Write the structure tokens for this entry.
Amino acid sequence: MSLVELGRYPTRVDAELARLALGAGGIEAIILDAEANSFFGGGGLIWVRLMVLDEDLDDARELLAANP
């Protein structure tokens, strides 16, 4: 069981919306690099990463694709 990157987002808000959609679908996710992104003004200089367990990756991709 390890974490893999599901996606990168230009702001914490974008990443949080995706994380919440995953949570509503029963998939746990965590956000990395949100603080560094905020430090640099959230302009995409440092992207916010959304991480899921490797066994949830395919389901998470499908869920986000179905709910853009």
